[in-house]
Amino acid sequence: SQQGEEDPQALSIQEGENATMNCSYKTSINNLQWYRQNSGRGLVHLILIRSNEREKHSGRLRVTLDTSKKSSSLLITASRAADTASYFCATDARSGNQFYFGTGTSLTVIP
Amino acid sequence: NAGVTQTPKFQVLKTGQSMTLQCAQDMNHNSMYWYRQDPGMGLRLIYYSASEGTTDKGEVPNGYNVSRLNKREFSLRLESAAPSQTSVYFCASSEYTYEQYFGPGTRLTVT
Fold it and tell me: Residue B30, CB half-sphere, CA atoms under 13 Å: how many?
């Protein structure tokens, strides 16, 4: 079974608004990553947050991690039409060298 | 610097046929991965190779075999294709469980 699950499954917002998506996972992790996938393409890494970090920023992205709740959130501020994509969280298993991906959030930014 | 390359981009097989998906990376990464992505689902790990000379099963290994030919190349073989293996296949590489770099994917249809 997959380690992570994103919420919501789909999100539609107006350009300029903020988009927030959440990820929950099941077991202890070393780090959590967020990826973006444009339609028909491979995944692109956005940001990595380690288990001992609570918050991380990269440009318009803000990621939080709550290991006690086994959850993370990705905030995209001032969204643009080009942010339209699917977003996935991925966790590694403390015991091995595997990544587990969630089912993704499909974000649509309306110009 | 091409990153991760995959061949072929598209393939149609009849049930029972075999084929090998090729993947190569030029980033000198130790770890390589094969995933499948089905509609509405995240990526599921088929096999991975933590380092040259080692391979391990992931979440959905049945019906597949892999070969880590050298540090650069990691191939995925379907010995007897089945319609349930219709999917998009992604190869990825990383340095341990840090950022993964993905190939463009192979769209496989089994009729």
Answer: 8
